[in-house]
Amino acid sequence: MKRTCLLVFLLFVGLTASANAAVTYELFFRSPGLTEQNNAFVLTMPGERFTPVDILIREITTGTDVGVLATENISSFNFSASATGGDGFFDSLVADGSGGFGTNPQPGGGTFSFFAFGPGFGSPGKASTLVSPGVREVRLGTFNLIAPTIGSTTFDVVRGNNDPGDIGTFQTPGLSNVSDATGGFFREGRITLTAIAVPEPSSVILLGMATVLGCVWRRRRSSGRSIAA
Asked: Do 26 and 57 form a contact (C-beta atoms < 8 A)?
């Protein structure tokens, strides 16, 4: 009876660990002004400029599953950047070509890509950096983000063809296949910048004058009460 209970307990623990195991990939942005963001809403000054903003991919492994970036280098990727809403925009989009060759977009374009032939050809691909247990990241490129002067602008970085082959390693052609097979997911990069309304100079002057007049009136009224007393 005790042996049966022990076997049931071990089976339960094993199933629980398997259920919680997953490999997840996410694109995110990092810069001194924005810190680290993904799927975030940020309040900014009208037209505020953030430069440079790094575009990175992160691999997160949980449970018993093992990711691929610990032992494999990224051999290719293809992503598209876009800006929608308001008058915000991005510029200077550049693919990180370290470990291979980066292809940058034409002026006004948003597609950037990378490819490597392999270590034997002097292009070993892009190696990942371990940032914490189970978490590795790779820098893909950079761009500048310019906040709207009014309203909100949403910036997206997504897989160019929405295809597993849009990013992969020499041994694993599609990273999203890994996340799908382990019950994880692939999260695209998104950030929304919203301009804070700034009072017009004339409004600030009027507000200041009203404040001064109010103080003078209160002071005179207080002085009148003191004399009457």
From this structure: yes
Residues 6+ apart with CB under 8 A from 81: 55, 90, 93, 110, 111, 112, 143, 155, 156, 157
Burial of 189 (0-12, 13-18, 19+ CB in 10 A): buried
- In whole angstroms, how far apart are CA 87 and each of 24, 44, 55, 90, 205? 33, 13, 21, 10, 28
Residue with tokens 């009208």: 46
Which of 55, 79, 62 lies closest to 24 in space, CA to CA? 62
Q: Considering only CA atoms, which of 193, 157, 194, 188 is closest in space to residue 175? A: 188
Question: Would you mind telling me the total number of residues written for the chain in this entry?
Answer: 229
Pairing of strands 22-31, 186-187: parallel
Q: Is 155 exposed, middle or buried (0-12, 13-18, 19+ CB in 10 A)?
A: buried
Which amino acid is located at 135 in the chain?
V
- pLDDT tens sequence across 59-105: 999 988 889 999 999 999 999 999 999 999 999 999 999 999 999 88
pLDDT one-digit tens code per residue, 111-149: 999 999 999 999 999 999 999 999 999 999 999 999 999
Note whether 160 and 93 are within 8 A (CB).
no
- The verdict on pTM exceeding 0.70 is yes
What value, to the nearest 5°, has the Cα angle with vertex 148 and ends 146 and 149? Answer: 120
